[in-house]
Amino acid sequence: MSQTIEEITLGGGCFWCVEAVFQHVKGVEKVVSGYTGGTAPGIPTYREICSGLTGHAEVVQISFDTNVISLQDILIIFFTTHDPTTLNRQGADRGTQYRSVIYYHNNEQQRLAQTVIEQVQPYFDHNVVTELSALGPFFEAEAYHQDYYENNTTQGYCTAVISPKLAKLRAMHADKLK
């Protein structure tokens, strides 16, 4: 069976967390941290994104083999490894750049994302506020943001925030991990 690669772009707070989660998922071929969803001209920098003035979100662009993992499974992992009920915030990270968002690449992804949101809503005490938007220009984040957790596992943010997310991933989705 030949590979069938699809891409989806997700924002669930700090891109370091989302990147680390999906790098451990079977069928995920590539995860690239970056920015999208803003209106500022030119290629944004991390410093500009952190100001909250560009409108961009921190996101990861995930390339996955649909013969190994479905988009539905990708989205369910996404919804169980961040809080989709907090507007413009994940934990201590606050601002529109940390919003919960699915940037779909086509109409089928949009339809499926809406369906999954409706399916997961009953599992949350508050409304899911995840934004659904068509993907616009995607800008790859600076090199030091790529593979951040893998390169900085002992850094404070990684041990306090990312490691617990990975433990939750292992507990909830062990059958989907590499």
Structure notes:
With 178 residues, this protein is α+β, with helices and mostly antiparallel strands. The chain has helices spanning 15-22, 46-50, 71-80, 107-120, 148-151, 156-173; strands at residues 5-12, 28-36, 57-65, 89-90, 93-94, 100-104, 131-134, 139-140. The strands form two sheets. Strands 7-6-1-3-2-8 form a six-stranded mixed sheet, covered by helices on one side. Helix 1 (15-22) crosses helix 6. The two termini are 19 Å apart. The mean pLDDT is 95.
Low-confidence residue ranges: none
| Radius of gyration over all CA atoms, rounded | 15 Å
Sketch the topology as an H/E string, one letter per element. EHEHEHEEEHEEHH
In whole angstroms, the N-to-C terminal distance is: 19 Å
Q: DSSP strand (E) fraction?
A: 15-25%
Helical content (DSSP H or I, runs of 4+) = 25-40%
Structure classification:
alpha+beta
Q: How are the strands ordered across the major sheet?
A: 7-6-1-3-2-8
Overall spatial form: globular
Number of helices: 6
Mean pLDDT: 95
Please outline the major beta sheet.
6 strands, mixed
Number of beta-strand segments: 8
Q: Regarding quaternary structure, how should these chains be classified?
A: single chain
